[in-house]
Amino acid sequence: KALYIPVIGNGDIKDQETFEERVKLSSVDAVMIGRGAQGNPFLFNSLARNGPKKENVPFQEIYDIVKEHYELEAEYKGIDKAVREMRKHIGWYIKGLPMAAKVRNEINQTTDIQTAQELLTEYFEHLT
Fold first, then answer.
1. Is residue 38 within 8 Å of 55, Cβ to Cβ?
2. In what helix (H) or strand (E) does residue 30 lie, and over which residues does it extend?
3. Is-contact 103 122, C-beta < 8 A?
4. In this structure, are residues 63 and 120 in contact, taking their beta carbons and an 8 Å threshold?
5. pLDDT value, residue 109
6. pTM above 0.85, yes or no
7. Which residues neighbour 99 within 8 Å (Cβ) at sequence distance 6 or greater?
8. What angle do CA 104, 106, 108 make, to 5 degrees?
9. Tens digits of per-residue pLDDT, 72-104?
10. Under DSSP, is residue 10 helix (H, G, I), strand (E, B) or coil?
């Protein structure tokens, strides 16, 4: 309130509750989101349109996003780099889902894109 310029808040916005808390507590004009979106692209829809939280997003929708992300990463950076870089992203996407640690360990050990994608497909088929 002491400033006459727009103030942007940042830090640990991971859901609707923390977003509203930051805005209310500090009266910021806008909020930046960083780590809270890792593995949770659904966060933006949740905040903008009061959409579902990640825990309420259907497994098939999460799988579709992971698959698309993997394909775009391979197209943009090449298959070998995509296999390595997607390991961290997949870990974020499946964090909190059943048997995530087992699948994450298996994917982290593969160097083959086809094997990684098969592991993801089997995992999400098992969840649904």
1. no
2. strand 30-32
3. no
4. yes
5. 93
6. no
7. 123, 126
8. 65
9. 999 999 999 999 999 999 999 999 899 999 999
10. strand
